[in-house]
Design a protein that fits this description.
homohexamer; alpha+beta; 5-stranded antiparallel β-sheet; 5 helices; 11 strands
Chain lengths: 208, 208, 208, 208, 208, 208
């Protein structure tokens, strides 16, 4: 009987020694990043808490956008490293919006939870826009410029799913107006008036 | 002025003629599937409704599992074709559960919305289990056997995000007990008793 | 001797029957597209001309942008289907520019051929800009908003390489000002003034 | 003449300096793993022995399963790192089996070498099972639950090819019965009787 | 009871309707190929025989190479479509060889079954060669030029696993000497003598 | 006013903290390589010069091939790390050529800039060859053996784009004749005469 147990353990080892290596790769956020994600924590130091994110709650919307994004991306949630998916929570106060932005190379799915959001994305030849209520989902294909506006009478909440563990969020205003790109160059490459460029730059911290 | 307009249109055509081809590929569900997904609908027939899914509401939980899965996978929601992400809604009545299952090659992220769920996944050498409440997220890495049990006092709701446009859902009971695999073969390859196999087969429609 | 020849042909068939299937997949542009690209033309109808693109010459720059993009993307050049790379030629007259744009999910490499171009891309926290001359190359990572301005005294030419057979080109002005998205919604989601939005819309054909 | 030789060496360097970097990436198993595999050993320390695995012989089948799996996965065979393929040898004594298991995200191809194996995999709606003899191959698509039983009169041997350098092997019995998941929770999520769960747990080392 | 059964069936449908779509994609070889593989046969027409290949036996080695390759690639074995793995059997008579060849973009793993094979691959800066016997495995990384020679006293057999469902096999002699590329052009681009080129062309059917 | 600014900065942080991580990954060439590329430099040490390569000029063609390849691959140009694209410049003096070679797993696009090049690639069953002039582009699909010969009356220049950040370049002569593979083994696996093998080996530094 004991012999069988020992042999069984032997079999167990031969079957399982590699099983934990590739099935997941919890990020070691202290180590370097790579094109495929962060290095893996040693499997024996991984606990269930690496696979659980807490604090997926409403962010503070008292800001310029009257909106908040609470992200569970790989840098917040190391368990999603290398797995090609992450989520975020979007809260928009009445009158607020998530202005035009892109997620380079990540698709976004928006699940309406509360309130009403008018959202859309544009291609050079088409506009896809819709007013969404709880029970609705909208997909914004990878890399498309899109926006979300609270078009209801109260606050709005949505959950977002991304096809990347680290989708980022590139707000157009920060790209155009939040740095030192000279105002006349911004104007030339956007067809906006220089005065307009300077005005919005003042709001988003840009100079030049 | 008109000349400029014509020239502008010329520029517009030269810049945009290909833009709508690869940025998205809405599934033509009447056509054949391929390893990378369904064929694309002609871009000029695509409307915003291809990118919006309605009916992401609680399913009927009056069934064997006291649970319901409402999916927005590519076959329900052609706009996610080829984009590597999809979502589903999980409703579990008090006492119910989503029994042991896998999504072959898709990672699942569970966002708690209401109630309390005890969930977990297992590797050959470790068990990762947690009781989750609203504000919690748990990730089940690709291909791992996992379960979700309503461990609270009322109904529970969660939203699921998957790293695939078509993650499927392979319920272990259906795989083992829902077909004509002979009971003694099931017993031999699971170490269950034949009597137990036959008993559960009766529940899940299996024969043999 | 003849016997050996026959046997040799037999061997040749057994070794080569599948070789032409996966090594390339020339697009059948009359068939449907899919997430991985177009269907393949039957290998026996493929000729060298499927792998050669002619007409990679200067485009007409007499237009709104004083610039022209001549593309050899999959819809122009079926031989690159499924191969993850394509090229384009950029000609910018004196004073012209390629305004702000993105290629969703494709990286761009710019090789300077003639003249001088000032180019750059922006992230939310950084600006990367450089004045380029022949002998210089600049890379614009996937999905980043970028621009190219002729900053020299004559015309400028560059060759572009993309990490996609179909990178598209999303000009920001067309996205924001070339469709029916209401001007107040554009203003709200860009922090531009409504009057400015309407002014640029007039130039790019937008209404509303 | 000597001049030409020197110039030739110059050419050789300019052509080959990068050639050894990406063509292969032998695993440095002492370094960390990443989502794409292990770090590469420095190319100048790589020898032919990194690309050769010896000891692909019958394992000891005197164990609970009367079976042995001899693996040449990346952790055994660093030369396959990052190459998306690996192999294993399966030996099953008379009466033995490889019980129900999955390889998360890896497809398995089984080549019969000796004896007779009855194998199969199940989806929620179908059973695919076959008795295999030398000359037969069977494919088990990625992530599918499958089994192999020696259904012949002597020992059976098969070679397995996987679409991953590190496919793992998740034996269902270890997942369900080899850990501390409470027996009533196992019962609830499998529809097995608690007594049955406890009985098999005793065999596979589970508690609770 | 019947009600429960009906509800159970409802649950079964809601859980399984998409499960068979993405888990596998058996090739419809009568349809077109695409960059990701062939279109899928309708799931309801798939049988276990799509996942089983028979005839993985020794090929006829009475030919120019004294060798035979028996392939189970996607065009022979539609069940591997889209799964990124396939296998072949190699038989080499005494004195025979598989001459220099590549598999574009597919890695090859060779498992020795019988006899002795001397195999190797070359990079611009290194040679990796080994004499292999049963129990040995050798990996030839993707796209590398490699060869296998029967260096033993009898016939030799090996099984090959590839990291592609359709790896092809590009025999160098056929590429250089089996077509109408002019002999002087072959000579110029190989540094071989024209007379040698013409001599080998006569053997491999080339002209010009 | 100041309050708004502070809140705005808060929003800026919450939106941008992850944005710079995955959008690019400039290679830290002092660190180890991995199957997906080099580790990333810390984002705060990245400057525009990481994204610019200078020195894309004609190489010295006074060598055995009368040709030069100037590469901007990841080891030359760390900004392309993980982005799946790179470029090179090809200069061929009158009478020179780039002899037969492959890029394992990378497709090559050749853009003619000056002069005339006759180029081609071969499969086991077909030859694709063309004489190219400025304005022409030719694609050589991944892993195919190909060549480029200056067939004009002066020097020729082309720019090359690759579907890999590190395509390498495997010159056939170096593989066959530049190492210690015994001449009789080369002869056996190429069907060349031993005397021819030894003659070319003397040119390319091979022994044995």
């Amino acid at each position: 009987m004991k012999m069988i147990h020992v042999l069984f353990l032997f079999a167990l080892v031969s079957f399982t020694s590699h099983a934990s290596v590739n099935d997941f790769c919890v990020a070691d956020l202290k180590g370097p990043d790579s094109p495929s994600g962060y290095q893996c924590k040693p499997p024996n130091t991984v606990t269930v808490d690496d696979f659980v994110f807490s604090g997926f709650v409403a962010g503070n919307t008292t800001n310029t956008f009257n909106a908040a994004l609470t992200s569970a991306f790989v840098t917040d949630f190391p368990g999603v490293n290398g797995l090609g998916v992450s989520v975020a929570r979007l809260d928009i106060a009445k009158g607020g919006s998530i202005p035009m932005h892109t997620h380079p190379a990540a698709t976004e799915l928006l699940i309406m939870v509360e309130g009403q959001i008018t959202a859309g994305f544009m291609t050079p030849t088409a506009l896809y826009t819709k007013t969404l209520k709880p029970g609705d989902i909208m997909v914004f294909p990878q890399g498309q410029l899109h926006f979300q506006v609270n078009s209801g009478n109260g606050k709005a909440t949505a959950f977002l799913a991304f096809s990347s563990a680290n989708p980022g969020a590139q707000l157009l205003d920060l790209l155009l107006f939040g740095n030192t790109l000279p105002s006349d160059l911004v104007a030339q490459t956007t067809f906006l008036d220089v005065a307009q460029v300077k005005k919005v730059k003042a709001r988003f911290g840009g100079r030049g």
